[in-house]
Specification:
The protein has a twelve-stranded antiparallel β-barrel. The N terminus is likely disordered. The protein is mainly beta and 241 residues long.
Length: 241
């Protein structure tokens, strides 16, 4: 465990660091933990995810997560896990604006493969044109254009990130569907990969009791040569603050 303990502690600390900033009760957020004991096709897919979202002062907000997964040929999940983490810091530059300036940094297992992105996020629910319609559908939707990416790749990669949450009050306030679609462009990949690969997840959740949910998650990862699709079943705990 000593091989991965130091970087894992560092990234968990980065994920939880904004908690220190949230001492004021006027700032809202949510801590979300997901455990997936069942993975249908890809055993090395994410088995444990911790999400944290929070409002910060002066129009700033934070969202971050860390995924832990079993590495092939390296023992059980907790013996030597791989990890992937995203840290997002956003700034709403005008109180009435539906747009945020967005900075993202990715940490991953391995060496020399971290990346940073800069772009703009459109919170469609807060837009005058489409917001009322989406709210009537109980749908929250945002699109982030990561226009600039910094890493060790020579090409100028850019990405569109979609995130959504759909509630079903006409069926039950216990049910939701949430997820994301990451669509990358202008990336040089080996033969056999899609030209503009997609990574996506859609999670169907049912609140069992309190902050506990039963979840089923469909995953699509076109960076894998085989087993592009995966199904994860598990449990989620959400704690607003």
């Amino acid at each position: 465990m000593t091989i991965w303990l130091a970087p894992a502690i560092r990234h968990v600390a980065l994920l939880l660091l904004p908690m220190v900033m949230l001492l004021s009760p006027a700032r809202a957020g949510v801590l979300d933990i997901n455990l997936y004991p069942y993975l249908s096709d890809v055993e090395t897919d994410s088995a444990l995810t911790v999400n944290l979202a929070s409002d910060l002062p002066a129009g700033w907000s934070y969202f971050g997560f860390i995924n832990l997964y079993k590495q092939e040929g390296r023992g059980a999940l907790l013996e030597n896990p791989g990890y992937y983490s995203e840290q997002n810091l956003r700034w709403r530059f005008h109180p009435e604006s539906a747009f945020d300036l967005s900075f993202q940094h990715n940490f991953r297992s391995g060496s020399d493969n971290d990346r940073s992105r800069l772009g703009i996020r459109w919170r469609i629910n807060d837009s005058a044109l489409l917001g009322e319609r989406l709210r009537a559908w109980h749908l929250r939707y945002s699109v982030t254009l990561h226009a600039k990416q910094w890493d060790r790749r020579p090409e100028s990669v850019w990405q569109l990130e979609h995130s959504f949450r759909l509630d079903f009050p006409w069926l039950s306030d216990r049910l939701y569907l949430a997820g994301f679609i990451d669509h990358s462009f202008n990336e040089s990949l080996p033969k056999g990969f899609p030209a503009n690969p997609i990574v996506a997840e859609a999670q169907l959740g049912w609140r069992v009791r309190g902050g506990w949910y039963a979840v089923a998650e469909y995953r699509l990862n076109q960076y894998r040569r085989s087993d592009v699709n995966n199904l994860a079943l598990g449990v989620e705990y959400r704690q607003p603050f």
